[in-house]
Amino acid sequence: MFIPIMIFLVFAFFAEPIFMNVYARKYIPQTLLFSRDSKYGRLDVTEEQEQMNYYWNGELFAHTDNQAYAAQMVNFVMMQNPKARRVLLVGGMLNGFISEITKYKSVEYIDYLELDKNMIAFAPHHPDVQYIQDDPVHYLRTVTENYDIIFVDVPDPTSLLLNRYYTLQFFELTREHFSNDSAVLAITLSSGTNFMTPELEQLNATVWETFSGVFQSRIVIPSVKNIFIGSNTNMLTNEVQELQVRSEKYQSRWFNDAIIFERCNTLRIQQFFDAISGRGELNTISDPVAYLSAVTVWTSILDMNITSTLAWMKAHNGLIFVVSLLLILLLAFCSSKLNIQSQTQIDMQIFLVSLVNFVMQLVLLNLFQMQFGNIYFMVFLFTSFFMIGLAAGFVLRKRVRLNISLLYVLNILFAGSVWLLFDVLVPGSVYLFFNILFAFLEGSILAKLLDVKYKKESIQSGSSFYFLDSLGSMVGGLIIGVLLFPVLGIKTSILVLICLLVSNLMLRILPQRIQRDE
Questions:
Q1: pTM, 2 dp
Q2: CATH topology of domain 67-299
């Protein structure tokens, strides 16, 4: 017993250095200087030719020696409200935004929002900057502080987490924190150097359409990235001469009259609007079309041309809803026929109830992520709570006096409750409660179905039961989690799940009625 313990302790002592040595190879020829996990994500810092590169969960989001980017992005925004005193900054810290903003003497303080303390550790220290460790969406929902400029410079909406910053709800939330009518919101979005690919055009069109629905006055500045600036006043400008006049005291090597003309000449701006004309869609939490557009940008880079396919699916979402529903039911039926001794309606119920409640866990995870941001840590809690609920449902099945049909009705009602509360801000504990509740219902239903299945199949029931349970969860993750979430939206996908639960209820009720009639 002593020797295995010693081997384990020796291995545990050297595990971290071994892992870091292997992990660092992914960044070759860069040198990995820092890598640390937090409950929000993993921050990696590398160096190559005296340039520091910052990676968040493996994605490059900032680097040093980026004076041109910082100078253009910050000054084009500050020019819209040169007398701004209070600035809220989300992103851009490690790209040099803070040093550029503090050149404006009117700025009294800057609030910088950052979730991860590891990121703040690399922040430049300045007496006028207050670093706040909080999720931006949560912060704006809970404070009353108002700002003259709110500047959001985050990566494109390549995930549902990032998509939050490009939604109608977020734009409306930021507007509530304007100090006066001259306050502005600025966001950045990827663009091409001189032209945009069709995928980038669609992404920019969608975000611009959503942005335009919130602000009375809005402009675009096609800089290194496109800058969308919105306000409730008509003081915004992207006219070359006016910007040159406003920027006289703030020009530098990286921001001057020539650069202003290059970025804001009428031909370039008109080219932007010609590219996005008539293509915009409304991006919301429940229908994350910007996320879908961002995915197509990357698939086009990887020569995986799925843009036309996804566009067709979005245009025929009613058909996709019905076809997906029928496909899942067909897969459930085919899976039930793999065991010749089984009862089709029982096996289909096992398949479908596992699928539905597994996907409901994904729904709750995504909802929590969109509301609070820190899903990296919460995955552990959601998974643990789900397994506890599942086990409790099995153990307490004898004490649950409700029959299977009533449990299905409860399952439908609770899924409907999530659908109704989709756009409502609720405490994080509510999502954990629903998570364990769906798991308990699944465990109770599966346990009762297993009892019925065992009476017919005896010893073979266990293996086929586990197979159907696992297969149902996998199919749900692939068809609904991967395909329907981005195409139909999460809220509409919940309706697919409710329809599947109704199908299960019918599978339970109809055979019993037929037997009674006979």
A1: 0.82
A2: Rossmann fold (3.40.50)
